[in-house]
Amino acid sequence: MDIDKIIDDFEFLDEWDDRYRYVIELGKSLPPYPESSRTDANKVQGCVSQVWLDCTKTAKGNETELSYCGDSDAMIVKGLIAILLAIYTGKTASEIRALDPRPVFDRIGLRDHLTAQRSNGLNSMVLRIQKDAAETLAESA
Fold this sequence. Notes:
Helix content: 40-55%
CATH architecture: Alpha-Beta Complex
Shape: globular
Mean pLDDT: 93
CATH class: Alpha Beta
Radius of gyration: 15 Å
Number of strands: 3
Order of helices and strands: HHEEHEHHH
Strand content: 15-25%
Structural class: alpha+beta
Distance between the termini: 32 Å
Number of domains: 1
Oligomer: single chain
Low-confidence stretches: none
């Protein structure tokens, strides 16, 4: 899903219960995560919930594009993954390194409504994606 559409949808929803339901729906809309990808290498450390992110790298001219699929055993977290994937998937490693997702989460007001544990988990997912991009850039240097 497109991040601009997600932002527009959030702005349309006034009540936080509706916004949480929307986050859960976003998580449900993720494609099924392959059982074979539930590996220690794909598991995101620092999350209370079980979280997996699988990165696929594709050459795009002189750069490498990163695409992600992900999953969690917690529905809200799975929705957060869907939002992160909308922000990052299909971007080059250098675009990802330059991209700070916090303004998106601030704009939709989600960071203020996450528990400390979920905020830490979200940060761990962002750090993992940033690390993938940094490693990809280092490999091509």
